[in-house]
Sequence to fold (832 residues):
Amino acid sequence: MSAPAPIHREGMHQPVAVPCGLRCIPRGVDELATEHLVLNMGPQHPSTHGVLHVLVELDGEEVIAAEASLGYLHRGIEKLAESRRYHQVATLLDRADYISGLHTETAFALAVERLAGIEVPRKASYLRTLMMELNRYASHLVWLGTFGLDAGAMAPFLYIMRDREMLLDIIEAVTGSRMMFNYSRPGGVVADLPAGTEGKIREWLAHADGWLDENDALLGGNEIFRLRMKGTGVIDRTTALAFGMTGGCLRASGVDYDVRRDVPYCVYPELDFEVPLGSTGDNWDRYVVRVGEMRQCLRLIRQLLDGMPEGDHGSKMSRMLKPPAGEAYAAVESPRGELGIHLVSDGGLTPYRMRLRSPAYFNLAVVDEALAGGLLADAIVTLGSLDIVLGEIDR
Amino acid sequence: MPVQTPADALRAAGIACEPSDETLGAVVRLEAARIADALEALYAEGYDFLVDLFATDTGERLELTWHVRAFERHEDLYLKATVDYDGEAPSVWSIHPAALYPEREAAELLGMRFPGHPNPKRLLTVDGTEPLLRRSVLLRTAEEARLS
Amino acid sequence: MALDRIAGEHSLLFIRSEQLFDLARSNSLFYLSYGIACCAIEGLMSAGGPRFDYDRFGIFHRGSPRQTDVMIVAGTVNKKMAPVLRRLYDQMPEPKWVIAMGACASSGGPFREYPNVVLGVDQIVPVDIWVPGCPPRPESMQFAFMELQKKIRDKTRERLDARADAR
Amino acid sequence: MEPTYAFDYNVIAAFLVGGVSFVAVTLGMSRLLQHRKPGTVKSEIYECGVEPVGPPWVQLKIGYYLYALLFVLFDVETAFLYPWAVTLNALPLYVLGEMVVFLGILALGLAYAWKEGALQWR
Fold:
């Protein structure tokens, strides 16, 4: 495999090709020009959250330029979806964004319902919203844990995984799987809440607040953590908008946009929740915005549990669904940002073309700007704060 | 100033376009070569956020879709243009830098070009892979996929 | 292995010393933290987490292939990832094993029809343990490690049989 | 057994033999028992699974060298402090003055380095 061409900027001092051991004195010791080291933060790296390959050009410890090279997990989810029936596509979409699969499934279901004009019973929308919020909390827990690991804090990761396991037990009880849910399909959801789930969720909710404060204190309360986060990986408002960033990263830069409130879907119009906002767009703001989102998540789950209606959960989902020819776009606020499914149908049994607008794909595009200028250690923390999932980036 | 429909704004900028209203929403079809000027005109109209850019193989031509959004008004607009296979469409990265990655991906997975792109390398597949999202490229059959 | 050259392949000294070291190796397997896709969240993060704790088996994750014994291929391997996987396998020190975790690594899994996906990791690296599941539950990953430990300890049986045949 | 002249040398010889044999045994055992299969790719540089790009021998910032130099300087200083501190109460008082002079000179060096900006990182 040919290595990607190294990034040579015009002003860069050409690296002197020196046989090992024989040092040549750099021209003009007083001028002391330094040469740039081109480094692979490659596919196999503990802190790239998957198989992201970033080519980093370093001057000593300072990152001069960075370029991401993707495709190490390109599995053709969009191409395979063109040969799957409408109720089978959810299996592929769970594997696209494998930390918050329910959001991708629900986005696809909403797109098909908008195209085919299917009316979803109220209970199904309630169940979808409840499961999406539980899934969002689990996804933010994974982010919080690995974000601590990137900054070097090993302990919070284990506490957070304990909370996440308890939450996954609940999600598994409802959907049948810890990660590949197949729960939300065009027309409704697969099953109603099994008996006793509400009790389990309330029991988990009783602990959740305390654990979140504990984890927040462990990470956010730590003075060194704050010093490392403030002022590093700054993505200002215009860069964020120009690169199409959405979700927590955009809100951290001060842009007040949340798909759940601005382009409401499911039962979000009936729920009240705030959208936390940052100001400068540095790593600390992204941290504060996401922890704020986690608190709002708990509030939402309580409201959903209280207002859960009775009724049919949309069990009659036909296998031979043939939406009319046409196109539809449905967006959902996934933990990473606006996740949209652009569905093109030619009236057949399988979608003609399905485009997954994945938030992490656009949040990652800013990596060339955000990493340049900082130290290498800050680059790793910035990558962690963007909360990228390579499954949905490479599709 | 009366709220101009995007199509009027484009016509004012001298770009031939015909709007249509489908289940998708406000769709404007126009000439692929004029997409850069169209997006510039729309940027002035407030459509300052590129949500997505992707290409579809419609059997005989490639249909490109630019999904832009007016951020304050939360209005979406879909610009569509058709390009023949291995054709080209101007790169719009100077107006929307968000288009950098999707253009490389569309160029590589559907076999077309975006002249003016600063970094036209392959994004997702290894050099020499055929354009996989074309209808002509078939998936592996059951026999091939069974542990060949 | 200098000892087998000196004391001979079938000598009891070599076999017994190797048995001792196999016992030690099987109880402290370090795996390469090389999570490709969804299996990584389940098999490396959850299984390494506090509930399905790997550390009880002496299994710990290492960042660099230079310090690992086991490579867990957790996810789909496509044509761009194959040379990287082969290079990482080559750069691991000698007594090394490979666990193909999940349907994707074993046979291409749900993405086997896509031409870009490699059908099964055993086309690239020799695989010791295949773990079914998509993704396999953390418990099945631990069962896989127990099978691997058995496989390492059985090497002594094989060497003793080879010694008996050689006689 | 009062220490005869040869006893001291025996002690040193024992230490020498003990040291050398410890190193020899451990390295020898590992060389004896290791599975040794050197390969071409195995000896190449490990860089996240991809071929390294560009030469590794590059001229780094001079700041790293200065930091290392200062560290060595003050490390040796503490090395001198230990024996002095241990035997301080058995020694006459003027030794304290000598040490203050020694520390003063080094503090002067630190102040100069600080002023010259050697500690300043960016």
Remarks:
- Helices of chain D lie at 5-33, 40-43, 62-86, 94-116.
- The mean pLDDT of chain D is 87.
- Residues 63 and 113 of chain D are 12 Å apart (CA to CA).
- Residues 59-122 of chain D form one domain.
